[in-house]
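Hey, quick one: can you model this chain's 3D structure?
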Amino acid sequence: MAARVILLVKKVEAGKAQLATGLGHKTVSGELHKQIRRLLDLELIEMTIPDKPNSRLQKYRLTDEGKRLLKSMQT
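Sure thing. Here's the predicted structure for all 75 residues.
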């Protein structure tokens, strides 16, 4: 699931609901929350509004480290 989340945020900044929809889920699951937290901890994705982690407008985007990981996976 983490790899699919990375591929989704590669294309465009996305909120949790958008990620859930992109993964084929109807709602945001606990597993999606865990994967987002894990990717944030690994610094592969980042918040668009880091000062307000609970903002309803919060979205996630790929970091430079995440872009490097994707590039290494494709070669």
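One thing worth noting: The mean pLDDT is 95.
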